[in-house]
Design goal:
Elements (H helix, E strand, L loop, with lengths): L4 H17 L4 E8 L2 E9 L16 E2 L4 H14 L22 H5 L22 H5 L16 H15 L3 H10 L19 E3 L6 E3 L15 E2 L1 H11 L9 H7 L4 E2 L9 E3 L4 E5 L2 E10 L2 E8 L5 E6 L8 H12 L21 E5 L2 E8 L2 E4 L8 E6 L2 E4 L8 E6 L5 E6 L2 E4 L19
Antiparallel strand pairs: 1-2, 1-12, 3-6, 4-5, 7-8, 8-9, 9-10, 10-11, 11-12, 13-14, 13-20, 14-15, 15-16, 16-17, 17-18, 18-19, 19-20
Helix pairs in contact: 1-9, 2-5, 2-6
Length: 446
């Protein structure tokens, strides 16, 4: 699709307002729909000085913690190959790191590891090797008991990738993730044209250069550089267009919320999955990640339902506002996604006798067919859930019944009499004697 000229103008105006009002030397953004980039633009001078080169959508910025999503995808590739398990203790693969934490806990920031290294501020000083990082691997919390963001933990995961592949993590990610996606402008060190890392004084219109070094062992936590044009491919990937880099089911698994960013004053709005951040706003769910390094800010956000995605990059230490969310909202408002017409499906005829009302005790649960799924109740409400075909049964996809098997029991005439799900029995009427309800129904209703 191509955006209407009026839409492109509105988006560019919002981008320009962000650069001017928040005093960003330069800012670039891109939008993705249906797996491809539909808009990108850049505003400002990367140097922050008038008369210098203007930013464009191929300009590289350091993407900070967005790097973690690439490392996480590579870890999931290793899992899919059978080389590791998410429940494996890390010392099984890194014997020189004797910690009682699992791969999944490192990915989800629930390992309890300290957030930063013991040395000086690693983002602004030259990096150190694995042995130095290993000495910073101390537990502050019992593993698996709480969310605690850990840059150190992703340094460990980078070493895991390197150890199992026999090559530096960045080379592995480049060969197995970036190259198949044609992401040629995503690199571990800056490749011209690049934006310099800058800090803008909070009370004056003056600039301060931010240093840039190779973070070495900590590089997997925030080393990569990229452009918005390149990262638009990563936004499409995050929306499910995985181009055989990883199974779409594995990607969906890695994007399920695992640990809440607990705020006792509010209902949760942000969580962490296996390398990805998950957020909820106005009833819609988003996946992606933010990035922050001295001199740089990054945002990547994908609407899970629509698949629309946004990338924003700026070269400032602070100051970026809700630009990513605003650009996505403008796209949805001004260019609503096409509505797919409903059509009938002959494939559903074999399930017709299952559909209708079923009862769990006295609670009524309608069973319907939506696309390829059986739906019990309403997903997201109580114990409502979707189920996908699993051989001669069905397997739950979310909520209380995630992963649980739903088995249909028929009588000698082939009539469905009961559904068995996680030991619970659903019958056509409340406590139907023909359903063989555990505990019996001999007393009947009185």
């Amino acid at each position: 699709m191509s955006l209407a000229s009026g839409t492109a103008e509105v988006l560019h105006r919002r981008l320009a307002a962000e650069q001017a009002e928040r005093r960003l030397p330069s800012v670039a953004a891109a939008l993705v729909r249906d797996g491809r980039r539909v808009w990108s633009a850049a505003v400002g001078h990367p140097s922050g000085r008038p008369g210098s080169t203007v930013a464009d959508t191929d300009t590289q910025y350091r993407i900070g913690s967005l790097t973690k999503t690439f490392v996480a995808v590579q870890v999931m590739r290793l899992r899919d190959e059978g080389l590791i398990g998410l429940a494996d203790p890390i010392h099984r693969h890194l014997p020189d790191l004797d910690l009682p934490v699992t791969v999944a806990q490192l990915l989800s920031h629930t390992s309890g590891l300290q957030a930063e290294t013991d040395g000086p501020w690693w983002e602004r000083t030259a990096g150190d090797d694995w042995s130095a990082l290993r000495s910073s691997c101390r537990l502050l919390h019992a593993p698996g008991t709480r969310f605690h963001y850990s840059n150190v933990g992703f340094g460990v995961l980078g070493e895991l990738v390197a150890r199992l592949r026999g090559a530096p993590w960045a080379e592995v990610v480049a060969a197995e993730v970036l190259e198949p996606l044609d992401m040629r402008r995503t690199t571990p060190r800056p490749v011209s044209p690049t934006a310099p890392g800058l800090a803008v004084h909070p009370f004056a219109d003056v600039l301060h250069d931010e240093p840039e070094h190779d973070a070495v062992a900590m590089a997997p936590a925030g080393q990569l550089w990229s452009s918005v044009d390149d990262l638009s491919r990563w936004a499409a990937f995050a929306a499910g267009h995985t181009a055989d880099v990883i199974d779409p089911g594995t990607l969906a698994e890695s994007q399920r919320a695992v640990a809440l960013w607990d705020d006792p004053t509010n209902a949760w709005t942000t969580a962490h999955a296996l390398g990805w951040q998950v957020s909820v706003k106005d009833g819609r769910r988003f996946v992606g990640h933010g990035g922050s390094m001295p001199g740089f800010l990054a945002q990547l956000r994908v609407d899970v339902e629509s698949g629309d995605g946004v990338v924003v990059l700026a070269n400032a230490t602070s100051g970026l506002g809700p630009l990513a969310a605003d650009l996505l909202a403008l796209l949805a408002e001004r260019e609503p996604a096409a509505v797919t017409p409903w059509t009938a499906s002959r494939d559903h005829r074999d399930d017709l006798d299952l559909l209708g009302d079923w009862f769990w005790g006295t609670a009524r649960f309608p069973l319907t067919r939506r696309g390829e799924h059986l739906v019990l109740g309403e997903p997201g409400v109580g114990r409502g859930a979707r189920f996908e075909r699993d051989g001669d049964a069905w397997r739950g996809l979310e909520g209380y019944y995630s992963g649980e098997r739903l088995v249909v029991h028929r009588d000698g005439a082939g009539v469905a009499r009961r559904l068995e799900l996680a030991s619970f029995v659903f019958t056509r009427t409340p406590y139907d004697p023909a359903g063989e309800v555990p505990g019996g129904t001999d007393g009947g209703w009185s």
